[in-house]
Structures are given as C-alpha cells and as structure tokens.
Amino acid sequence: MNGKIAYVFSTKMWKDDAPSGWYFVSLPKIISKEIRKNLGWQEEGWGRMKALARIDAVQWETAIWYDTKMGAYILPIKAEIRKKLRLAVNTEMEISIFI
Fold this sequence. Notes:
- By secondary structure, the chain is an alpha+beta fold.
- It has one domain (6-98): AF2212/PG0164-like (Elongation Factor Tu (Ef-tu), domain 3, Beta Barrel).
- 18% of the residues lie in helices and 44% in strands.
- The protein is built from 2 helices and 6 strands; from the N terminus they run E-E-H-E-E-E-H-E.
- It has helices at 29-39, 79-85, and strands spanning 6-15, 23-26, 48-55, 58-67, 72-76, 92-98.
- A 6-stranded antiparallel barrel has the order 1-2-5-4-3-6.
- Strand 1 (6-15) and strand 2 form a beta hairpin.
C-alpha cells in the first residue's frame, strides 16, 4: 500500500461509556507496542497517528490514538463504516491498518 506498513488483526468493536458514545476497536497490545516503537515519531498531538483502515472491502482514511490507560492504540469506527458493514458491538472482525 504505497510503502505503508500493514498490520492485520482480529478484534471486537466496543462503545465508549461517555454520553457521546463513540465506537472503537483496540489494536492488540503487541502490535501497538511495535507501532509505537518503530513509528511513534509520526504521532501528532494526543498520541494521534494517521492511518488507513480496511475491513472487508471497505477502506477509509483515519487515525489511531494511543490510549495510555490501555497501553494500546484505538481506532474509531465512524457511523458510516458501521452502517455500511453492519457492524455491531462485540462482533469479531478482521481489520487491516496501514501506517
């Protein structure tokens, strides 16, 4: 993907407890550790790093954020993507992240 490093993993979507109720997936800690070690220099404010995400045939430009409490990056899943793929909380899915 244009010289980007690909990370592929399986995970489940979860919903934040805040009133706004954002939906996320957490990258595995081992992948997060590798990304932070090798690509952390790309982080912007609040641990934000631009990325490209893909679930099935749907791909979109996005960003991942490093969550210090979890020790992992999290990826927000926009409503448009959730609707298009009919994603639900706790459904197992395979995700590709390109950084």
